[in-house]
Amino acid sequence: MIDPVLLRTDPDAIKRSQKARGNDESSVDAAVAADEARRAALGEFERLRAEQNEFGKQVKAASKDEKPALIARAQELAAEVKAADARAKEADAAFGAAVMLLENVVIEGVPAGGEENFVTLRTHGEIPSFDFEARDHLELGELLGAIDMQRGAKVSGARFYFLRGVGARLEIALMNLALDRALANGFTPLITPTLVRPEVMRGTGFLGEHADEVYHLPADDLYLTGTSEVALAGYHADEILDLGEGPLRYAGWSTCYRREAGSHGKDTRGILRVHQFNKLEMFVYADPAEAEAEHDRLVAWQEEMLQALGLSYRVIDVAAGDLGSSAARKFDIEAWVPTQGTFRELTSTSNCTTFQSRRLATRFRDESGKSRPVATLNGTLATTRWIVAILETHQRADGSVRVPEALRPYLGGLDVLAPVGA
RNA sequence: GGAGCCAUGCCGGAGCGGCCGAACGGACUUCACUGCUAAUGAAGGGUCGGGGUUAAACUCGACCGGGGGUUCAAAUCCCCCUGGCUCCGCCA
């Protein structure tokens, strides 16, 4: 949630953000009004409550014959307090609902507008070209005995698949490469739960307008997470962290589940868009003052990964209207997918400033010893989807695929993935 | 699935319906002392919110797993929910 103090002191800043996102500015005024109503109701309750507390002491100290009269008055007061308390709770709930409608305040410089209004920050690598007819990742995956969509569909339905042989090995290699790099950069690895309680799912903001993207298990009222970000954000909920040694960095490894509701007919071929995949996710708890610098570091680590894998890509600054509600800024890295003739998202990294931590009550102590909400950031370090770009980019005329050098140690030295039975 | 126990501050652990924001111990911070890190003595700290202040000071309220209830008054009594632990059974 946004900072209620900012709402009071500088509502225009929030309005500007809402406008950049293409959201309704009037909800800011509604929230301000709800805040005022809430504080007025709270003040009234607290005043009555103080009076009641004072009265309680008198009752206790009173002599036997004074008591009945005092208690009669105290009973009236108790009724008033109860009513005032109910009003205060109601006003607080109304404020909560109003403020939940406001999405995180975007950072200065984020391009305004919708999905198409992104700004390309930089590109890296040549667009690969082939002197033969390039095969797409699924065709390659089938030649290599690496990807089996038919059996995936037989067992689990559309958008499910088996990774087999070098395909399975490739994914594990990719994850291990990413994990080693994360370790080298000071991340603590974490294998996270993929089923979480409703509070955690809600706290991380995934039960908002995109709730239908999430798998729910009604028998146990648990949600399957679409990213380990959920568990990683919940990890330190209700805690006060010590950031004296710098940011806390975690690398969460988990299987991710997404319903892909509303994307019927889109990316139906291969493993580009699937219901289940693996991901190594970076998650950082940082002093808000350091958040933007940390965000740049996260992108840099992502770029190092893509470069090590020999992929061509561009880094984009995602437009305000295309940000999730928690993100104040988001950088996506999109790799070139030869058979699609376009860039496709391989990583995403968001700076959520203090938006997430406020709801999850994750704080840290600043130099003065006061507790304040931390900034949270997250970013992809590797996912199953990368296999698409790797196979297509490094394919050769005979259907074999050259293994990028950085990956070879994780594949027992294998330098070429060869078609099976060839 | 059956039976029982428990939920209090950073941790351990007390707590008679008002004297409890909460004993005691540890950890922590500060000061003193032994020429240094150790030992000892003393003092001090919770969280969230409202008001107030340039900032403090100050002040009020809430918080003893969560939600209801009883009462003038609840950590303490009653109900519901959630979580954890132990034993038995079952099981990949």
Helices and strands, with pairings:
Blueprint: H1 4-9, H2 11-21, H3 26-61, H4 67-100, E1 119-124, H5 137-143, E2 147-148, H6 149-156, E3 162-163, H7 166-184, E4 188-191, E5 195-196, H8 198-203, E6 215-217, E7 222-224, H9 229-235, E8 240-241, E9 248-257, E10 276-286, H10 291-308, E11 313-317, E12 329-337, E13 342-351, H11 355-360, E14 363-365, E15 371-373, E16 375-383, H12 386-393, E17 401-402, E18 416-417
Parallel strand pairs: 4-9, 8-14
Antiparallel strand pairs: 1-11, 2-3, 5-7, 6-7, 9-10, 10-16, 11-12, 12-13, 13-16, 14-15, 17-18
Helix pairs in contact: 2-3, 3-4, 5-12
The chain binds one RNA strand of 92 nucleotides through helix 3 and helix 4.
Characteristic terms for this protein:
single chain, 422 residues, alpha+beta, Helix Hairpins, BirA Bifunctional Protein, domain 2, 2 domains, eight-stranded mixed beta sheet, three-stranded antiparallel beta sheet, 12 helices, 39% helix, RNA-binding, Serine--tRNA ligase
